[in-house]
Structure formats: C-alpha cells, structure tokens
C-alpha cells in the first residue's frame, strides 16, 4: 500500500523536479527501428537515397532528370469549430473552441521536387488505391513526358502494384512480356515487381525507403509544414473548403517559400560521426 507523504504538491514544484531529473514527458519521438536493418543491403539502400538527394540539383540542371519524393497524407480532416476563434489580445492568447463538427477526410498525393522544393501536380482524393497512385504518377509524368525520373517512395503495396509496373513499362516502351501476377514473370510477386521498378536502366526509376524509414522521404518534411500552416488550426466548412485551402497554400508555397532542403544525412547515425 502506497504511503501518503504529503497532502498536495504544486504544478510548479512538479515541473522543478522533472527539470532536475531531466525528464520531459511533453516530448516524444518515434523509436521503432527499421525491420529491414537485418537486410544486408540496408546500408546500401539508405546510402543510395542520400546519394540521390545529393545529385538531385545537378541531375536536374544538367540532364533534366527529376528527383521526386512521393507519398500520400491520408485522413486530413475537415474540422469546423462550433464557435469562431476569439482573436489574440494583449496578455491573452487566441481563444479556440474545443468542440467541432467533422465533415469527412481527404487524402493528398504529394510530389516533392527535390531540386526546386516545389510541390508538382498535387492530387486530392478521398481514396488511396493503386489506381489513384498511378493516376497521380501519370499527372506528374505528363508535365515532362520524355524526361528521366527518380521516384522516391515507401514500400506500401500500392507503390509496387501490377498497375504501376504496367504503367512504367508502357512509359518506358518496354515490350517484353510481364507475366502474370502471382504466377510468373515480372508481375509474379512484390519482390519481382520491386526489382523491375528499381531497375536503373529504366527512364522512370524507383528508390524505395526501408520499412520504418519514412523520415528518409523528404515529402514527409513538407507534410509537416502543411500541417503546421494549414490543416492543424484552420476551420473548414466542408471537404471543398479543405481542398481549396490546401491547393491555395500549395500555390503560395511554390511561388514564395519553395526551396530544396539541405539534406545532411549520409547514411550513418549523425551522433556516430
């Protein structure tokens, strides 16, 4: 049975004790390491991604090759507060009603151009299927249909689907038989489809991040900007209002804020350098 030592304790004193113990309960970070670290090619895969980032600007300016980080931000909620915010005043913060009405969710397909920092051909849908993914890629490729592309993505199954393999084969004028999904050839398995998509001889080449390594995809940095600037705090009367706000911010970002990220990670833990 716990012994009662004091009648009460102030929040300020609790904060002092936590500071002395260097405990920060308000902070958190992901800790689960990649399941692919057992893969003997793990370091090589990470290094190849970092190399692609280092080469992106030169490849674009000298050879017209686009390095694009692609992913989906799912479950973007159209939340409408039941009462308007009260503006900030001297000595008081903005006052916001905690209760809200839900108007549904959207999924943003983001395409981050590594060399320029712009978001290209953004697509917004309510679904995230392999058909949606190929449609998004097609919208992107059609902006410069004969250029080379290095696509950085995570290894969600819709990112290495039969539809995607067929699309890439068609864009790259690959006429060899692709086989049959689950039976033979390039389409037989996830592994065979990934091997096809990551073939560096193709005009459209994919680089897949290892599992639990979404932080290696630069589009995730930009998604954080979108959350902090738009979707976290604004009120939306419906899905149309949410989509309009996202597209307006992307236009503004591309015109005034877009810049390539200074990628310093080189494939080893920074603290071990």
Please provide a written account of the structure:
The mean pLDDT is 90. 34% of the residues lie in helices and 16% in strands. The protein is an alpha/beta fold and 273 residues long. It is built from 7 helices and 5 strands. It has a 5-stranded mixed beta sheet, sandwiched between helices. Helix 6 crosses helix 7. It has a single domain (35-267), classed as Nucleotidyltransferase, domain 5, CATH 3.30.420.
The amount of helix comes to: 25-40%
The domain count comes to 1
Rg from C-alpha positions? 23 Å
Distance between the termini: 49 Å
Outline type: globular
Name given to the CATH homologous superfamily: Ribonuclease H-like superfamily/Ribonuclease H
Mean pLDDT: 90
Please render the helix and strand layout as text.
Layout: H1 11-20, H2 42-63, E1 66-81, E2 100-113, E3 123-125, H3 130-141, E4 149-153, H4 162-171, H5 190-197, E5 204-208, H6 219-231, H7 239-257
Parallel strand pairs: 1-4, 4-5
Antiparallel strand pairs: 1-2, 2-3
Helix pairs in contact: 6-7
């Amino acid at each position: 049975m716990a012994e009662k030592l004091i009648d009460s304790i102030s929040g300020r004193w609790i904060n002092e004790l936590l500071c002395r113990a260097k405990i920060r309960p308000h902070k958190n970070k992901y800790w689960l390491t990649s399941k692919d670290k057992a893969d003997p090619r793990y370091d090589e895969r990470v290094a190849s991604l970092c190399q692609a980032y280092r080469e992106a600007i030169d490849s674009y300016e000298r050879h017209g090759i686009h390095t694009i980080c692609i992913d989906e931000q799912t479950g973007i909620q159209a939340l409408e507060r039941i009462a308007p915010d009260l503006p900030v005043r001297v000595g008081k913060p903005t006052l916001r009603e905690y209760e809200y009405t839900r108007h549904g969710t959207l999924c943003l397909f983001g395409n981050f151009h590594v060399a320029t920092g712009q978001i290209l051909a953004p697509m917004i849908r309510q679904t995230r299927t392999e058909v949606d993914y190929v449609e998004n890629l097609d919208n992107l490729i059609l902006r410069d249909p004969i250029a080379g592309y290095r696509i950085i993505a995570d290894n969600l199954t819709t990112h290495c689907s039969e539809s995607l393999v067929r699309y890439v084969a068609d864009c790259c004028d690959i006429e060899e038989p692709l086989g049959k999904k689950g039976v033979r050839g390039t389409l037989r398995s996830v592994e065979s489809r990934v091997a096809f998509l990551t073939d560096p001889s193709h005009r459209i080449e994919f680089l897949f991040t290892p599992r639990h390594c979404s932080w290696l995809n630069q589009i995730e940095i930009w998604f954080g900007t979108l959350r902090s600037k738009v979707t976290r705090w604004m009120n939306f009367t419906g899905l149309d209002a949410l989509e309009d706000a996202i597209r307006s911010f992307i236009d503004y970002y591309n015109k005034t804020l877009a810049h390539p990220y200074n990628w310093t990670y080189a494939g080893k833990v920074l603290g071990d350098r």
